[in-house]
Specification:
The chain is α/β, with parallel strands linked by helices. It has two domains: 2-130 and 309-340, Medium-chain alcohol dehydrogenases, catalytic domain (Quinone Oxidoreductase, Chain A, domain 1), CATH 3.90.180; 148-283, Rossmann fold. The protein is built from ten helices and 18 strands. The strands form four sheets. Strands 3, 5, 6, 9, 10, 17 and 18 form a seven-stranded mixed beta sheet that branches. Helix 1 (39-46) packs across helix 10 (318-330). Bound molecules: zinc ion (2 copies).
Length: 343
Amino acid sequence: MHAVRLFHHGKPLVDATLPDPVPGPGEIVIDIRAAGICHSDAHYRAEFGRATLPITLGHEIAGYVTDVGEGVANAYAGDRVAVHYFVSCGRCGHCQRYGEQFCVTGEMIGKERDGGWAEKIVVPAANVIPIPEEISFSQAAVMMCSTATAYHALRLADLSGDDSLAIIGFGGLGASAVQLAGVFGAREIYAIDLVREKLELAETFGAEPIPSSRGGFRDALLAATNGRGVDVALDFSGNAAASIDALRSLAPGGRLMLVAINIRSLTFDGYADILGRERRIIGCSDHTRGELFELMDIARRGEIDLSRVITRKVPRTAAAINEVLDELDHGTTHLRSVIASER
Ligand SMILES: [Zn+2]
Ligand SMILES: [Zn+2]
C-alpha cells in the first residue's frame, strides 16, 4: 500500500510502499478515507516531541473497516469509523487513577505507531469510534484531534452558561472551540489574534474580535467586558507573553487553560495575578475516548458544523503534505487541511 513516511527529522516526508496491514487478535484494519493534517505534525516532522522513526504520521483518521481480527466484537467490515489516536492499556495504575492519557505504556498513533497518511491502518478495536451517517469522514477525522482538544479544555474549565470566554489564537482549535462554547451556553465569546484575516474569520463564527498588538490585548479585553475580565481563557497561542496577558485578563475565579504547547517559562506575580483573585492555571493534555463519543453525538445533532473548519482538501502525496506542513511552520490562514477521498 501507499504511505507517506517520515524517515529523518527535519527532512521532507517521502512517498513509500508498505505491506498491507493484517489484523492481529483484537485489531481491525481500516481503509482510510480521510486524514487530517495537524499543526503537531509539523512539530513531529521538525523533531519537537520526537516521533519514533521511520513512521507514517497522521493522527486524525476516518474510514471503512475492512478486516476484523479474532475476538473483535465492536466492529464489522463495512462500518464507518474514526480512530481515537491514543492507545492505552486500561489496566496500569495511571490509567486507573489519573486517566488513559497518562498510561505508562501509552502510545500515540501517528507519532509512536504508524498513522493515517496511508491507504490503510491497523488499530486496536478499542480505539474505534463509530461515525453516525450524518457526519462525513473528513469531519469525523478532524474531530479526533482539534475539536476533541477544544472540548476537553472546555470541560476541564468547567465552562457554564454564565461564563464569558476568550480564545487566544484563532485557528482550527479556535473554530471548534467557538462552536462548542455555544453548546455549553457561554455568554460572550471573544477571539484574540494578531492576524486581521483570522479575526474576520472568528467573527463569522460568532466570536467578538479583539485585536492583539505588540502591547498585548489585556486593555482591549477589559474594555470589551466593562472592566470585569473573562471567566475562562483558552490559550491556543503557545506564546508566553500572550499566556500572561490572558491570565491578567481573568475575572475573579477565572481559569486560564493552557492548551497549546509552550516551552517557555511563564513569569507571574503569585499574589496579584493568582491568589488575590483566586485565579487558576490549568493544563490540558489531549482528550479521552469517552469525550469522542460525546462529540460525535453533538455533531450528529447538528450543534456543531465542522465542514466550515475544513478549508482545504489535498491528495495523499508526500509533495502535497509537505507543502501544507511548510505552511503550518510559517503560519497559514487555513483552518484545517484534510487528505480526503470521500466515498
Ligand atoms: Zn493533532
Ligand atoms: Zn495504562
